[in-house]
Write a structure and sequence with these properties.
It comes from Cyprinus carpio carpio. GO terms for molecular function: iron-sulfur cluster binding; metal ion binding. This is Glutaredoxin 3. Keywords: Iron, Iron-sulfur, Metal-binding. By secondary structure, the protein is α/β, with parallel strands linked by helices. Helix content is 44%, strand content 17%. The protein has 14 helices and 12 strands. A 4-stranded mixed β-sheet has the order 1-3-2-4, with helices on both faces. Strands 6-5-7-8 form a 4-stranded mixed β-sheet. A 4-stranded mixed β-sheet has the order 10-9-11-12. A hairpin with a 2-residue loop joins strand 11 and strand 12. The longest helix has 16 residues. It is flat. 32% of the residues are buried.
């Protein structure tokens, strides 16, 4: 099918976008280990038959990490519309309709409400001050988010952020969870403070500094997180639900080792995600720490297991 293709490299992906720059392009980021992605590939095939002038691209998220990182992909079976053409809303509806068909495969809407609430609670409490915004502090993607980032920066407020554009489930769920319909949203110690207008009022009244926790440097925060448990794993997702194949593999190895460990979801905290790369001079995730020292990523852990050294390393004996 001419308008449905698989991109296997960054160069090929960029060439496809360049050649189709004047039309709508739909990209499905998939993972071979996730059954729901197989269903969504069938959805892509059906859509491609109907929309001849739209380019449909399948891309294995973990095989081309440069693209996944660029678009901040945190979930397989995620569709990105790279050009908002006239058919984008129609395609969105068809993806949702076709994706919710039978077949017994898991799909995005299957998460129970109580599970979503637990996830939201974890995200809200991921840092003493959490900002849910459109984009990141480095690249805000709306005027309101840009303003609130500038205010927090001007007043030296230490905070972590979550890009609600990267996760539609969180974006919609948080509105109901906190009964607050708009973004950005600021939380302090797990409690909703409000949005941009509230922050502006606190600035005008001189109460802003007293509202937020005392500033802790990023370096000290990273040291605290690394030493939170004798064995700490920084990954995409958590023990219950890994969100990339590398994290899923390292969880399997860790669980088979019989050693107690804690995890930190770097997808819920962009500051930690970027800061830890520099702090430990290790550019990728997952990252495993034992007694505050970096052991390495998946490849290192695999080698230790193969050499029979993993158990002693996890116990801090080596």
């Amino acid at each position: 099918m001419a308008n449905l293709t698989e991109a296997t490299s960054l160069q090929q992906f960029e060439e496809l976008l360049k050649n189709n720059s004047k039309s709508l392009t739909v990209v499905h980021f998939h993972a071979p280990w996730a059954p729901q992605c197989s269903q969504m590939n069938d959805v892509m095939a059906e859509l491609a038959k109907e929309h001849k002038h739209t380019m449909f691209v399948k891309l294995e998220a973990e095989a081309v990490p440069e693209v996944s990182e660029k678009y901040e992909i945190t979930s397989c079976f995620l569709f990105i519309y790279l050009l908002d053409g006239a058919h984008a809303p129609e395609l969105t509806n068809k993806v949702q309709r076709l994706g919710s068909g039978g077949g017994g495969a898991a799909r995005a809407g299957d998460v129970r409400k109580e599970d979503l609430n637990e996830r939201l609670k974890r995200l809200i409490n991921a840092a003493p001050c959490m900002l849910f915004m459109k984009g990141s502090p480095q690249e805000p993607r709306c005027g309101f988010s840009r303003q609130i980032v500038q205010i927090l920066k001007d007043h030296n407020v230490q905070y972590s952020s979550f890009d609600i554009l990267s996760d539609e489930e969180v974006r919609q769920g948080l509105k109901t969870y906190s009964n607050w319909p708009t973004y950005p949203q600021v939380y302090v110690s797990g409690e909703l403070l409000g949005g941009l207008d509230i922050i502006k009022e606190l600035v005008e009244s001189g109460e802003l500094e007293n509202t937020f926790p005392k500033t802790v440097s990023l370096e000290n925060r990273l040291k605290s997180l690394i030493n939170k448990s004798p064995v700490m794993l920084f990954m995409k997702g958590n023990k219950e639900a890994a969100k990339c194949g590398f994290s899923r593999q390292i969880l399997e190895i860790m669980n088979s080792a019989g050693v107690e460990y804690e995890t930190f979801d770097i997808l819920g905290d962009e500051e930690v995600r970027q800061g830890l790369k520099t702090y430990s001079n290790w550019p990728t995730f997952p990252q495993l720490y034992v007694k505050g020292e970096l052991i390495g990523g998946l490849d290192i852990v695999k080698e230790l297991k193969e050499n029979g050294e993993l158990a002693s390393v996890l116990k801090g004996e080596n």
